[in-house]
Every structure is written in structure tokens, then in C-alpha cells.
Write a structure and sequence with these properties.
5 helices; 62% helix; mainly alpha
Length: 100
């Protein structure tokens, strides 16, 4: 999921700390099963930067590591986990629309 990629969560983190408001977040889940929806929720609920994958580019990896170092691991994790309510709302809506 998006939360597994350091580049993606780095962008979420940067947007949020630069003043991005959660009210402006619109999540469009693409999960096709209940298991996938649960995995998306879990990826944000239990997010920790240590479990993310890094880009192949050494320059990109270095920049992202510096971002996490500046934020602090706990602070970075907290900001990314802060997207959970928006993710939950979207997953719940998707679940409701999938019910016959």
C-alpha cells in the first residue's frame, strides 16, 4: 500500500507539516476485497517508518532519510498515522457501497 513506500509517506508528511489540512484529504481506496481493505487500514494504524521500502536511487534515499531524521522517527510516525481517520472513512464508505 501507499504507507509501505517511504517516498509516498514522505510526501504525505511534508504536505501535512507545511500546513496541509486533514479536511482537504480525499482518500480513494482501490481495495477490491475485505482483506485488502483491512490491510490498508492496518498499514496506517500500525505505521512505522522502519517498515517502509526505500527508492532505488541513492540520492532519493538519502533525502528521505534526512527528512525522517529532521522530523524524528516518533514525530514522523505520528503525522503519518494521523491520516488514519481519513483512510478509515474512505474504507468504510467503500465497504458500505460494496454491500448488496
Amino acid at each position: 500500500s501507499l504507507a509501505d513506500q517511504l517516498w509516498c509517506v514522505g510526501e504525505l508528511y511534508t504536505w501535512r507539516v507545511m500546513g496541509g489540512r486533514m479536511e482537504a484529504v480525499e482518500v480513494l481506496p482501490v481495495a477490491s476485497s475485505a482483506a485488502e481493505r483491512a490491510n490498508v487500514m492496518a498499514s496506517f494504524d500500525a505505521f512505522h517508518v522502519i517498515w517502509t521500502t526505500v527508492p532505488a536511487s541513492a540520492d532519493s534515499t538519502r533525502a528521505l532519510v534526512q527528512l525522517v531524521e529532521l522530523a524524528g522517527v516518533a514525530g514522523f510516525n505520528e503525522v503519518v498515522r494521523g491520516f488514519l481517520p481519513a483512510v478509515r472513512k474512505a474504507v468504510d464508505a467503500q465497504r458500505a457501497s460494496a454491500v448488496p
